[in-house]
């Protein structure tokens, strides 16, 4: 067990830092502004659902000793290819946003253009996959950046002096319950490619089989814990600002939280947090997206790191040349809402197929959790997609 701690933490932080991107920072700040202390209830509910999703998916991957797309193809021929297509398209679209976020981080820190900053950030991400031990370096990079984000956000949360007692009380007795906010947080933390980032990393590192389930559970819960800690402290930082009646900048809500809490120093800290969040999300998105297509080609398996680098280059080129294609990102976001119920539903079917999981018996409570998430996310994901399609073609 001891020798695997680096791998377990690496997978946990890869999942967590994949989740904590520019969208994560903005969502948390905006919802705090809307719901104030009652947002604590939304975070608590989403944490419970997130853990249920992660445990369902990671355990099935571990006991089957197969990647999600291969499991899906065993459930229904062709389903794995369909899910892979959704994952890769969604991952590419959101990676354009992640690259843009990294560019914004450099812009805040150094005053250079977002495009130049994006290229520097992409070069840093590419460097990770140029070394011989890319997996180990990726694990360590995710851990260091994750700890750095936590420390900086904790500092800003303390300086903003939030009403912690009120936040704690409203976490268990909210003034209002926003279901859409819960679904948004669940989708943003374990939606799309993020669900599989750590699970596939553990598989690649050899952590698999029924005997590894304890380690898989530890890593999955650790990943949600890290992402949740970042969200909780960012929530407290934003709550400290809005509870004083200060107005956040609508153009960049998370940046104004840092600035209003800790002045210009806080604004520079935001640049570091945004850069860290964006670069780790670029790495996580590229790695996980390619892990979904390498089963289909021996060439991709052989040159996996180069394909990952190509994924990052394409994302960066799109951002630098044509910016963030708004309609593409809107559609990708809507499709992302459908990936979770499809992929999680597939894993739940697979959990009860002996041809896939052998003699493994999946916990009933996890199955119930999973079914609830599938139904809720399928309804709201479908509704959102129907709302966005007319805009795409208008």
Automatic annotation (TrEMBL):
Membrane topology: Multi-pass membrane protein
TM spans (from-to): 35-53, 74-96, 108-129, 141-159, 179-199, 220-242, 269-293, 305-322, 328-352, 364-386
Keyword Membrane carried by entry: yes
Record's keyword annotation contains rRNA-binding: no
Stored InterPro entries: NRAMP_fam (IPR001046)
GO molecular function, one term: cadmium ion transmembrane transporter activity
Subcellular location: Membrane
Assigned keywords, A-Z: Membrane, Transmembrane, Transmembrane helix
Any single GO BP term: iron ion transmembrane transport
Any single Gene Ontology cellular-component annotation: plasma membrane
Protein name: Membrane protein
UniProt source species: Pontibacter korlensis
